[in-house]
Every structure is written in structure tokens, then in C-alpha cells.
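Worked example 2:
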Amino acid sequence: MAGAIKAPRRPVDVAVGVLIDTAGRFLLTSRPAGKVYAGYWEFPGGKLEPGETVEHALRRELREELGISIGRVERWKIEMVDYPHALVRLHFCKVFAWNGAIQMREQQAMAWQTLPVEVAPVLPGTLPVLQWFAQERGFAGKTHVA
């Protein structure tokens, strides 16, 4: 129907782990086959379940996806991204300590990166984080390969 007004979409809350190692590198993982944007690179994490806090969801998701138990979670920034399939509210959290060897439990790939990020393509919701890193680290230039 022409001129019909779409109902606003409710955002999906997602906890996102920005794992940073002692060398200052950050971990990116690829989206597994069968998921929307399969093959795109992003920071690991996942949707909050009913009644979960961001921290609880992040702990659960990183255990499920990467097989690790994380230490202190530092809430960082929140970003809304309007994807064609969903409106997503991304809760980015920095994580500097974890226990266990990182395992790719969803057959995704992983890469420790610095700026500029060398893996591609990068998920649109990940791009703001690269800009935040550039600002924090005084990095000038492109943050990722096009």
C-alpha cells in the first residue's frame, strides 16, 4: 500500500567482546556460514537472552563461541546499527583477560589485528569501533582495507 507507515522496529540487544591482548592487538572473528553476513569480520559476541545483563550475555557467548572464560568486563560504548534484517543495539565491552585457549567452536576464522585491519570484508557494525581505536591510539589513515 503506497504511503503506508512502517511500525518502528524494536532493537535487538547484542553484547560484543573487544578482546585486547598484551600487545594491544584486538581479536576479530568471521561470521559463520549460514548466518546473515556470513564471511564478514566482526568482534565476537551475541544476543542477550531474556533477563540477561550485557556482562552475563558476553560471558555466555564467549564461552559458547570461543571456549574461553573472561575476566573483568569494561563497558565501553553503545552503537545502534540499522541492518536490513534487524535494528541492533551493540554493547561494546573491552576484555583484557581470559582463561583458556581460544577455539573456533562455530567453524569461524579468527585474526588478531591492529590498525589498519587487514581482513575483509568488515561488518558495518564493526567500523565505528575501528574509528574509536584510531582516536584512542592517535592513528591517522584508513582503519581497514576497503
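The chain has two helices and nine strands. The longest strand covers residues 73-82.
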